[in-house]
UniProtKB/TrEMBL annotation:
Pfam family, one: 4HBT
Keyword 4Fe-4S: no
Tagged with keyword Hydrolase: yes
Alphabetized UniProt keyword annotations: Hydrolase
Any one GO MF annotation of this record: fatty acyl-CoA hydrolase activity
Protein name as annotated: Thioesterase domain-containing protein
Alphabetical list of Gene3D superfamilies matching this protein: Hotdog Thioesterase (3.10.129.10)
SUPFAM superfamilies: Thioesterase/thiol ester dehydrase-isomerase
Length: 174
C-alpha cells in the first residue's frame, strides 16, 4: 500500500491467469489440486490476491488459511469489514470439502453461516482460519471453521453446506 498526497492510498493487486488452474482441477483429486496450489505449480484463486489471504496447509478433510488484517480491509467505522472473515472462512471451508473429492468433481457453497465474536483490526495480527469437514455425502458436504489469532483467541466461527458435483459414475461417500 502506498500513501499519496492528501492521505490518498493506493494498492496494486496482481494475479495469474486462472485457466491453467481450472484445467488442472479437472484431472487432479481435490487434495492433489490444492497441494499443487501450495507448491506454486498452479495459480491460486484471484480473490485471495485481492483480499490478501492465502492457503498455508491442506490435508484430507482440512484446510488452513492465513490473513493479515490491514487498513484496506476496514469499513467506515474503523474495523475490518465482516466480509473478510466470511470470505476467508468460505475459502477454508470449501477447500476442506474439496480435499475429499476425486478428480473431476467440484462443489459450490449452498449455505454459509458465520458468527463474529469480536472485532478485527489491523492490530489483531495475523489470523488463521482452519476449516474441517464434518460430513461428505453423495450430493452435499458440511464443514466447520474457526478464525483465531496467534494466541488462539477466537474472532469468528462458522459452518457451511456445499453442493457436490461428481463426474458420472463416481459415487459418493455415505
Amino acid at each position: 500500500m502506498r500513501e499519496e498526497a492528501g492521505g490518498q492510498r493506493t494498492r496494486t493487486v496482481t494475479w495469474k491467469d486462472t485457466r491453467e488452474g481450472v484445467a488442472a482441477a479437472k484431472s487432479l483429486s481435490g487434495l492433489e489440486y490444492l497441494r499443487a496450489i501450495l507448491r506454486g505449480e498452479v495459480p491460486g484463486a484471484p480473490i485471495a490476491a485481492v483480499l490478501g489471504f492465502a492457503p498455508v496447509e491442506v490435508s484430507e478433510g482440512r484446510a488452513v488459511f492465513e490473513v493479515q488484517p490491514a487498513e484496506y480491509h476496514y469499513n467506515p467505522i474503523g474495523t475490518v469489514h465482516g466480509g473478510l472473515a466470511a470470505t476467508v472462512m468460505d475459502s477454508a471451508l470449501g477447500c476442506a470439502v474439496h480435499t475429499t473429492l476425486p478428480a473431476g468433481a467440484g462443489y459450490t457453497t449452498l449455505e454459509l453461516h458465520v458468527n463474529m465474536v469480536r472485532a478485527i483490526t489491523q492490530d489483531s495480527g495475523p489470523l488463521t482460519c482452519t476449516g474441517e469437514v464434518i460430513h461428505v455425502g453423495a450430493r452435499t458436504a458440511t464443514a466447520q471453521a474457526k478464525l483465531t489469532d496467534a494466541s488462539g483467541k477466537l474472532y469468528a466461527h462458522g459452518t457451511t453446506t456445499c453442493m457436490l458435483f461428481r463426474p458420472p459414475g463416481a459415487g459418493g461417500r455415505e
